[in-house]
Amino acid sequence: MTAMDAATLDHRREYVNRRNHACYDNGVTPEAFDAACRALLGEGKHPPAAWLRAAERVRFRCGRCAGTGMFVTGVLNGQPTGPGGDCFRCGGRGTQGWRDGRRNRWRDIHQRAY
Asked: Where are the domains of the chain?
């Protein structure tokens, strides 16, 4: 295996890893993630490194706060309501990327139940 083949394989593995993090607990399918990256890249064939850069920029609406960025405790007449404060899943941005998914997965696995 050449160094170029190894780098390509590493880029592909990292892309799949980021796609899995972005799809965690947010209602985003791998197909939707791929489509969003493809939309950023445009038409044509692109190297795996370009797909990796596109994965950095792809963001989806937060499923926990419905894109408001605020902590939601319920829905009243179709509008999210809550006591306020930033959404812990998206950090108050209203959108999630792959890093948010990675943080949320780690927190869900390692949080202690008191």
From this structure: 1-59
